[in-house]
Design goal:
Strand 8 and strand 9 form a beta hairpin. By secondary structure, this protein is of the alpha/beta class. The radius of gyration is 18 Å and the shape is globular. The mean pLDDT is about 95. The protein has seven helices and eleven strands. The strands form two sheets. It has a seven-stranded mixed beta sheet, sandwiched between helices.
Length: about 250
């Protein structure tokens, strides 16, 4: 995943308010009593667009991602910002850390990319092992409603001078997965376009499943919040934020 896509990812995501996301994750961490300068590991960190503002807030961030290309972009952004942030290539299902963390994050759909119950359970167990007692796992997921209906079997497109795309989706109710087929057209300096192809899969985890898996992994005080707010989910939400605390 995110190979050729890495070089245009930030351009496609330039409307995302990462400052607001960072502020919300700060609120979630404070609600879980994560220390103000706590040691935090962000899984599926991508190009570091959330890692950097959280580091600027004082958290001791480490970025983890499976894509070398995304990590290379993240390291370049950190260097340009004058920030010392370790970025490590690692599969989040096999997360290991040299020192236990105060918080493990999985942001921007990272848990949706765990496409089987076994994958999600493996990550939650690894995250629990990576945390100090009382440490927090905090993540967000796109909701089943979003994946099955908003994306579903729909085709989306964008026509832009720099980067255009055709986004074809296929929903499988048996596996609760949506396959995302993305054709990207990236304009070169000579006016011609390069075509890039990406195929990704996300799973629609239910709240019941997530709560059960987190409990089995050793977490307690499990809470669900609506999109970018400190209140419970509502019908129609396209995203949930989840916090869970490792048992003491």
């Amino acid at each position: 995943m995110y190979t050729s896509f890495a070089r245009v990812y930030d351009a496609l995501m330039d409307t995302v308010d990462y400052a607001a996301w960072a502020e919300h994750y700060k609120q979630l961490m404070e609600a879980c009593h994560v220390p103000a300068k706590g040691r935090c590991v962000e899984c599926a960190c991508g190009t570091g667009s959330l890692t950097l503002p959280l580091r600027k807030m004082g958290y001791q961030m480490t970025g983890v991602d499976v894509s070398e290309e995304m990590l290379a972009a993240a390291m370049e952004k950190a260097r340009a910002a004058g920030l010392m942030i370790p970025f490590i290539r690692q599969d989040m299902r096999n997360l290991t850390v040299p020192r236990r963390a105060d918080c493990v994050l999985a942001t921007c759909d990272g848990v949706n990319y765990l496409t089987t119950p076994e994958d999600a359970q493996a990550f939650f167990q690894a995250a629990c092992a990576a945390l100090k007692p009382g440490g927090a796992l905090i993540f967000d997921v796109s909701t089943p409603e979003k994946l099955s209906q908003t994306l579903g079997d729909n085709t989306l497109y964008s026509d832009d001078d720099a980067v255009s795309y055709i986004w074809r989706n296929r929903w499988d109710g048996k596996t609760a997965c949506v396959t995302l087929g993305l054709s990207l057209f990236v304009r070169r300096s000579d006016g011609a376009y390069d075509r890039l192809e990406e195929c990704q899969t996300q799973r629609a985890h239910t709240r019941k499943e997530l709560r059960a898996w987190l409990t089995q992994a050793g977490f307690e005080d499990i809470s669900f919040y609506g999109r970018l707010r400190m209140s419970p989910p509502r019908k129609g939400d396209d995203r949930w934020h989840v916090t869970a605390v490792k048992a003491e």
